[in-house]
Predict the structure.
Amino acid sequence: MDNLSLLAFGSDGWGDELLSGLLVTIQLAITTLPLGLLIGFAVAGASLSSHPWLRRIGRGYTTAARGIPELLTLFLVYNGIAMLLNGVWRWIDAEAGFVELSPFIAGVIALSVVFGAFSGEVLRGAFQALDRGQIEAGQAIGLSRWDLFRFIKLPQIWRFALPGLGNLWVNLLKDTALVSIIALNDLLRMTNIAVGATKKPFTFFLLACAAYWLLSILSEVVLAQLEARANRGIRRA
Amino acid sequence: MSFDTVLQYGHLLLEGSWLTIKLSGLALLIGAFCAMPMSVARSSDRRWLSLPVRVYISFFRGTPMLAQLFLIYYGAGQYRHELQVLNLWWLFRDPFYCALITFALNTTAYQAELLRGGIQGVPRGEIEAAKAYGMSTWLRYRLIVLPHAYRIAFPALGNEVILLLKGSAIASVVTLFDLMGQTRTIFAKTFDFSIYLWAALLYLVITMLIVRVWRRLEDRLNPHLRRRAVQRSSTPAVAVAPTE
């Protein structure tokens, strides 16, 4: 069988399997993004809080979540939450069987934990880059806290944080590959399965790399446009 | 939490840590060696010189390192015959060398890109002054551009050291018993969750040691900034590194 027919759709080729894997990869990244950002905002808020113990929690979380390998975080979440769930389950019903955490959910949680720690630092930097005078001006004209955040802080945080968040998004896309290790049927695992059946490892892994590469390049193009849009009206040095 | 498991298997964790350090340390050294000429080529005005390097950097930074590892470790099998003819099969048959090659190729791309940023950050005036002195290109790079570029890129290179060390945990997937690999085996044997926490602690200790060492080195490298550095010591030198 030549290389092209290996990629055919249907029962003969692997095109549809690989495409379904690619969709899982994209789903995983897109599901993680808002959750990770939410953790990021919380961590940035905690790190900048006036309560010393909140600051300590924020700093401790960032240090731990950024210093531990993503793969270890994934296993910590996957096995840790499964054990916790089973403990609770047994406590309710001693006869209960073993429940397993879905690899997709474990992946989303683990990747959010990591994304939250890194984006927390990016957002903290953006908060600190805000111009005090503008915030005072907003307070002076009587904006409520929410309006101040919405109209003055957020648009600029977005502008300051976008380059950093863009890098983190590309990292997130690549980190999704790790979830294939706990048996999620993402692009890399589907590629593995195809390799097992066809005995053409180089061809298929190169193809998987090409797909990830394409996603990264596409993301960079979109991010460059978002950045240009966020910086409209800013005079360039 | 009981300490039985870590007391029984702790020596394996330390052995694993040593493999993790060896693997990422060697890869970083090879990467540092290859990244220098590559970053010079990348910042060249000649397109035939800079374009291949750009594609190389983009590929290795745009794809997961795990996929790269599979491409080299499993992918080599597809060309087993050719590799045997070339007498290179021993290299690609061994998971340690495959992981080393992958990590080295990967970190070369990252280091080259960071160093390119450093080269771009060298003030125009210094380069013009070197040209005015009649320095050859070789001499200019050796004495003026690269030393300054390394100083500029140094904190970012420290981040890369930590990122590669963390990334090296995927070596466990190709049957290597690095810190992650040992941890997974011990967990499979004992089902004692605390072993993951010990492994996490070990990784944190290693990264913190790197941050310390790197700050010392940075201080050495920038003697002209030393007095100011004392005043600013509260700002972290390595941005992604864990803050204390």
